[in-house]
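Task 17 of the worksheet. Students: predict the tertiary structure of the chain below and write it out as structure tokens. Keep your answer in the requested format; marks are given for formatting as well as content.
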Amino acid sequence: MKKDSIHPGPVCAALAFLGAFVFFQFAYPYHLMRREQLDLFLFDGDYIRQTYRGAGWLARFAGDFLEQFFHLPVAGPLIISLLLTALGAVVYRICRHFLGRWPSLGLAALFFVWSFLRETSNIYMTRYTLCTLGFLSLILLAMQFRKASLRPVAAVVLLAFGAWALGAPFHPQNGRLWSVPRLDDERMIGLDVEVCREHWDRVLKLSEKDLYMEEASYCYNLALAMKGGLGEGLFNHSQNHQLTLLFPVSSERTIFTNSLAGEAWFHLGDMTTAEQSAITSLQASPRHTGARFLVRLARVGLITGEDATAQKYLGMLDKTLFYRNWARGVMPGSREEAVSAGYAAAGAKMPRRDFVHQGENPRSVLLALREADPGNALARDYLLCYDLLCYDLDSFMADYVPEMVPDRLYHEAILIWLSRNSRLNPEQVARYGVDVSMVDRMGRFGRNPGGYKNTYWYYYLKALNGQ
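Model answer:
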């Protein structure tokens, strides 16, 4: 085989494409899915005319159009890999006008790696990769003119067009000149995405590695509660007092934490806080849009019976590519009876009165939720675990009744309360349905606390020791 027949460029491009695709598909997929949640693209003429105007309109339009596909497991990584590979190819073609093959490949690889790393930033937007690719493509186009005297003129005209249509290739916050992959951040974003999708088994799977972050523990607690295991497995994960159970909604918190805050309250039945979370997150999103928040606001309106409000958000979602079918399926007046019954059942869990300042006293809201629907097992478990995380055993005993599900942590707390009040005797133990073997286990804990770190006894002991 002749040496000239060897073409390393296509081989390098194929390897770069496969490397990027494998990385974003298997190691970093949630980071792309999160972008889709915070963005919105409507197939509506008025919306497009109003949104995509001014400098950078083409890059914003193309970026938003492509990002709507990012929640799909293959489409997002495929799009990013194609853009990065195209960027490297354009740089290679430009460099070949001045340099040899291998130096050109080296510079193309540097551009590819630089853009790849920018794409790993948590708040990066695809339009900046498109913008960089667009400007370089315009430079390459100007270089195609045969007359050398026309090339500078063509470059000026084309780059002026690029400044108008593409805008700046970076932004101080959302464009970032540099970044590196952060796998713990990716796992945390994955927890958030799967909580939003209500994939509770997947949340628990991602929680197997404890990130020792309040947001990660919050997601774990919610998934565990939705699976009915909060009273058993709470301390299998790190807990920072009650802060890992319920988040307040506040403009002083990040959009990430605020959007998570509404998840637990929504499933508990407090639609007021769930709505506040979505609105606050919507206002803080990069362009004050986000499919995730519109879906939540629509669901809140459907549950509370505010059909006019729900229809406003459903009307917007009806103009999207991937939320259209859902919006039409739940639209008031056209949905199936089973769907209406589901929203009515969710509305029955709502408290009888609104709580404007629930962040100051979450326990009062949990009590109201349980009062509104005594069968609300989620509110029951959150109330009991809130008492435990606050070390408030007197309130816990007031909230607990022996007929409740005999979860392990609850029985461990009962034994502490009985011991503190000099009532740890067989009659009282039997009254609360605690197995005698649990008393023996508490004795073994006293001899070796370190062997029982997933118990409430250990959590309570650390508080007594001031840890």
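Marker's comment: The CA atoms of residues 429 and 436 lie 7 Å apart. The radius of gyration is 28 Å.
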